[in-house]
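Task: sequence design from structure.
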């Protein structure tokens, strides 16, 4: 399972229908949070996502609408008896501010909080996936993130294995896990019975930014690109001045990168109706939608 839940999709100002930025990724039961705007823990409760299996928070930058949910979330988990460590990743020169947020109210959490500063190009390596820090362009130190699963083994050809004399059972499993085996004096190698490696899934989240070459490269062939789309394209001048993106710019990048799906987020409070945002993007790229709070997207595996 790889599920993305949009907990907060608004721009700098919250609205009655959009909380500040927060996106939850559930990968095989492990929860990862990307940005943590005010009220995120309540949004998690409303969405019934749970929070005790949250392993990490990835912060794109230190603007208030992306970080003010940290104190409430940390204290809620502490009150609920959490003991597992929590890892918070954030851009360079932001560790002290993040640490302060975890201690607001002079209450230390009852679990360990590790804060790790990342520079563009740094990679957080996990057993089955990596998370790359991407250079973004905003008016404070900022990064985006690309979650990329490792390639999967190719499909197991059961009929071919039997033809080679491999009996069904534990030997099948050993071959599927990359181990050569010997059957009646003959060695059978994994490549004899496995197809070509299959790609893992990839999600890219930009945070607040202008379009950048680094985002483009990280997004090539991505299953899902979640891109800043604060404004419609008639306000391109304002987007450039504030270092945000328009919906059309996000769609142009998605098209060039060949992503499978684009979701536009960080929608300015001026758009009670986001149809101008969607219209601008649709003129360029078909596979696009505007995020809304509590939108859920399941990302399937691809065979090739």
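Answer:
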């Amino acid at each position: 399972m790889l599920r993305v839940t949009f907990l907060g999709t608004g721009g700098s100002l919250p609205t009655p229908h959009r909380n500040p930025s927060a996106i939850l990724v559930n990968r095989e039961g492990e929860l990862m949070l990307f940005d943590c705007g005010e009220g995120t823990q309540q949004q998690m409760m409303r969405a019934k996502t749970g929070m005790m299996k949250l392993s990490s928070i990835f912060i794109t930058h230190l603007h208030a609408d992306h970080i003010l949910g940290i104190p409430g979330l940390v204290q809620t988990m502490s009150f609920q008896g959490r003991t597992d460590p929590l890892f918070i990743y954030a851009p360079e020169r932001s560790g002290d501010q993040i640490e302060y947020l975890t201690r607001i109210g002079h209450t230390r959490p009852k679990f360990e909080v590790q804060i790790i500063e990342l520079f563009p190009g740094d990679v957080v390596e996990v057993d089955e996936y990596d998370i790359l820090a991407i250079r973004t362009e905003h008016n404070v130190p900022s990064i985006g993130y690309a979650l990329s699963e490792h390639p999967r083994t190719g499909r197991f050809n059961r009929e071919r294995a039997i033809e080679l004399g491999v009996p069904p059972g534990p030997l099948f499993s050993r071959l599927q896990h990359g181990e050569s085996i010997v059957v009646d004096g003959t060695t059978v190698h994994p490549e004899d019975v496995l197809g070509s490696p299959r790609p893992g899934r990839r999600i890219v989240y930009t945070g607040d930014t202008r379009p950048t070459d680094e985002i483009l490269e990280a997004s090539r062939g991505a299953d899902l690109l979640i891109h800043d789309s604060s404004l419609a394209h008639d306000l391109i001048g304002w987007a450039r001045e504030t270092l945000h993106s328009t919906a059309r710019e996000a769609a142009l990048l998605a098209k060039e990168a060949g992503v499978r799906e684009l979701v536009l987020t960080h929608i300015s409070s001026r758009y009670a109706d986001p149809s101008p945002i969607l219209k601008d993007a649709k003129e360029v790229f078909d596979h696009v939608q505007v995020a809304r709070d509590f939108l859920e997207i399941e990302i399937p595996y691809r065979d090739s």
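The chain has two domains: 2-152+198-298, 158-193.
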